[in-house]
Amino acid sequence: MSNTSENPKPSSSSAKMTLKTSDNELFEVEEAVAMKFCTVKQYFEDEKDSDVAARGSTTVIPLPNVHSAVLATLISYGKKLPQSNAVADNHEEEETKKKERKKYEQGLLKNLMPGELLDLISAANYLDFKEGLEFFNQALADHIQNKSVEYVRKFFGIKNDYEPHEEEKYREEYAWAFEGVDED
Amino acid sequence: MDNLLIYARGISAKNINTHIHTHAALQLKMSNLPRELIVDILSRLPVKSLCRFKCVSKPWRTLISHPDFVKTHLHRAQFKRLILAFGNSLYSIDHETSFENDVVAVALDYFPLDQNNQLAIAIIGSCNGLLCLRSQPNTFFVFNPATHESARIPDAPTPDGFDHAILAYGFGYAPSIDDYKLVKAVNAPLVAVFSLKTSTWKLVEGFHCEKSTEVWEGSLPCGTHLNGALHWVFKRRGGGECVIAAFDLETDTFREMPVPAISVSGFSTGSLKGCLCLMDLVFGLRRRDIWVMKEYGVGNSWTKILVVDPCYEVKPLCLWKKSKILMTIDRNENENENGNELVLCNPKDGTCKNFEVVDIPFWFYADTYVESLVSPKFSAIV
């Protein structure tokens, strides 16, 4: 698990910021990526007003609600997104990047445990990371789409408050919706 | 629950209490996912999953049934389908994710139909996931193919001569009053309108064309639903001019829409990408020119986008994979011969290719619909 940004480009002039997770790990992140986390952006902008000289790497932004494993994944995903400050690519470069991103996304989802998805969503929500939230929400929807009612209850920690006869009646009436469901 | 180990590293017998505490903490975190996130995630699911998940718990049932959630889910319009009616059967097709040579139709055998029904089912209209179907000359249903719900529309009032005069139908949605309506358009002065919300019929004033008192000629295809109004094209008796009548579903009144400055010998309306289309039969040729009104209500925004030939009837259904136009086409003048087929048309060069459906060579009615949770029964308690 990396706790520094990968391959810093020597020619890059973008500032870096340091994020501190709930388990006290430090992540050095390029500003362009960190700004995709709107919560961080807001914090940074508030800090900037109070101390103009101490920008970027000397400011450590605390993220008490985010674990390092989760932040690593979110930063990794953020890096793969089109950067807002990047020079505009031509069509071919754009298409190549799109394909790369798709491949990365598929690989990411394959190695993810379903429980980790919930943490990524919670963290992306806390960080107000819109693209990340969109991606992981869709991934979770895809994951539960064909699952049984029991699976969903366990997954989200939801208590079943139906009486047995109520549930039985519902399952009979909507039998078609219960067909072809993944086995638990 | 192996993923718990990420958070409870290095568990030993000594740390069992910590383990249990962490497990409980994780459970708590899971069930504390904010409501708006649950709504976001659920709104991405197909209707079948959502109907099943109403059984997860009573709060989930309430959430999924809530009109706001139904709207949010509908707004995503994530799952679009084609509906075909052939004889007494209805078929649903997932046209967007199918590969071109592997399009399979799913028979919808749960639509409540009288076994003695001799007449073919006709599709009157489709909006927001609700289909309006006619099974007998005067029997209409509103049907949601995704939720399997249907409701029979009570028979219309029948003043003298009413039934003989019915010439056109239409089904649409008025967003400003959140109501679905079935319209039976007849010769002036009367039009019958059924509102799903109030479950009642009412008679309103028919279409009066400024230029002539008798506009109609022959029976018309079903009205095109667009922008909260139903549209029919009426051709003047004996003349070549046509006029587009738009029936506003909020006010239940007609207004006239501008037509392209062309002379038509036959016509029908349709919609594509949110714009009104006019299909014009070129006199003497088996060819249809398709015009699109790029700006709604603006007469000089009518633009010819495609020429389809040979064909007798054509109706654009939707944009397929963002670039081609999926249309139903009838190549024969005799209405009872061979029905319609599906073609995919490339608007850039006008080339058309058959869009084959496995085991179904042709049908009589086709339309598109989106999977939604909208209920045909307005007073339904779920």
Polypeptide structure, described:
- Chain A is mostly helical and 184 residues long.
- Chain A is built from 8 helices and 3 strands; from the N terminus they run E-E-H-H-E-H-H-H-H-H-H.
- Chain A has a 3-stranded mixed β-sheet.
- In chain A, a hairpin with a 5-residue loop joins strand 1 and strand 2.
- The radius of gyration of chain A is 21 Å and the shape is globular.
- The N terminus of chain A is likely disordered.
- Chain B starts with 15 loop residues before the first helix and ends in a 12-residue tail after the last strand.
- In chain B, the strands form 6 sheets. Chain B has a 4-stranded antiparallel β-sheet with strand order 3-2-1-24, with no helix packed on it. Chain B has a 4-stranded antiparallel β-sheet with strand order 4-5-6-7, with no helix packed on it. In chain B, strands 8-9-10-11 form a 4-stranded antiparallel β-sheet.
- Chain B contains 6 helices and 24 strands.
- In chain B, 14% of the residues lie in helices and 38% in strands.
- Chain B has 382 residues and is mainly beta.
- The longest helix of chain B is centred in the N-terminal third of the chain and has 16 residues.
- The interface between A and B is large, with 39 and 36 residues.
In short:
Chain A has 184 residues and is mainly alpha-helical. Chain A has helices at 31-34, 38-50, 68-80, 91-110, 114-126, 130-144, 149-156, 164-173; strands at residues 16-20, 26-30, 60-62.
Q: H/E order of the elements of chain B?
A: HHHHHEEEEEEEHEEEEEEEEEEEEEEEEE
Q: Assign the structural class of chain A, choosing from mainly alpha, mainly beta, alpha/beta, alpha+beta, or little secondary structure.
A: mainly alpha
Distance between the termini of chain A: 32 Å
N-to-C terminal Cα separation of chain B, in Å?
34 Å
Give the spatial strand order of the biggest sheet of chain A: 2-1-3
Largest sheet of chain A: 3 strands, mixed
Radius of gyration of chain A: 21 Å
Number of helices of chain B: 6
Which overall shape of chain A is indicated by the principal axes computed on the Cα atoms?
globular
